[in-house]
Amino acid sequence: MAEDLNEPLDAETWELRLYVAGQTPKSVTAVANLRKYCEQHLKGRYKLEVIDLLVNPQLAEGDQILAIPTLVRKVPEPIRKIIGDLSNEEKVLVGLDVRPLAGK
């Protein structure tokens, strides 16, 4: 779901990866929650990749995924990880170190 947007040069594009296992309730909830937070706080400034480990289990090794669902923030560095269904918005935003956009 990468979007090619004309962004200002100073706007950093966040690269997020969410590891799930099929369409379990936790996986579905995590995807929905993350999409909502990204649209509210990172609109136009993120790339989200959802990786289903039932389809591509070998991809878990690269980011050292031990539990699912797991969200990995690749960019901006440093890499950060959050495990769970991402239902606690404040915890997710603090964990990702998301700051509100200027003027919001």
Automatic annotation (TrEMBL):
Q: Which residues form a coiled coil?
A: none
GO terms in the biological process aspect are: rhythmic process
- Residues forming the KaiB domain are 17-98
Q: What is this protein called?
A: Circadian clock protein KaiB
Name its species: Hymenobacter properus
